[in-house]
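call fold(seq) -> C-alpha cells
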Amino acid sequence: MTEPFSPNTDELLAKNAEYAGAFHDSDLEVAPTRNLAVVACMDSRMDIFQILGLENGEAHVIRNAGGVITDDVIRSLCLSQRFLGTREIVLLHHTDCGLSKVDEGDFREELAAELGVKPWWSLEAFTDVDADVRQSMHRIEMTPFISHKEHVRGFVYEVETGRLREVTG
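ret:
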C-alpha cells in the first residue's frame, strides 16, 4: 500500500449528525417484521437492503467474509429465530468474491511466517460460488441450533448486473 491513508471517522460522525437530525425510525420494533434473516458477504459493493428491496426493521442482516455459515453466524441465527421470531433465511453470496481469489494454505502460511502463529479459524476460501452456497445451505440443515429450516434459500448476486440467481440442491 503506497497511497496515504486518511481516516474516515470524523466525516462519518458529521454524516451521522445529519442523519440523526432527520431520524424517523425510533418506533421500529427490535424483531424484524418480515421474520427474515439474511446472511450475506461483507463485500462493499452489496447494499443488501437495496438488492432485496427491504426497509429498515424488516430483516436481520448478518454479514461476514463470503457470507459463510460459521459458528458465529449460527449463533446469530439461533438468537434471531429463538428470541426475535425469524422463520426464513436467505443466503446471499456473489460473483467476483475476494475469497475466491485467495489460496487458504498460502494465506495461513503467510500469517504464520509474519506473526509466528497460524489462525485458529478457517478462511473459507472457495473457487465455485454455487458450491459454496450449497455448502452453507447444508451447514444450516445440519446444525441443531437453527430450529426453522423449512424456508432456507440461497442466491448468488451478480455484481456485474445486479441480478440474483438462485442456487438449488
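DSSP finds five helices and five strands in the chain.
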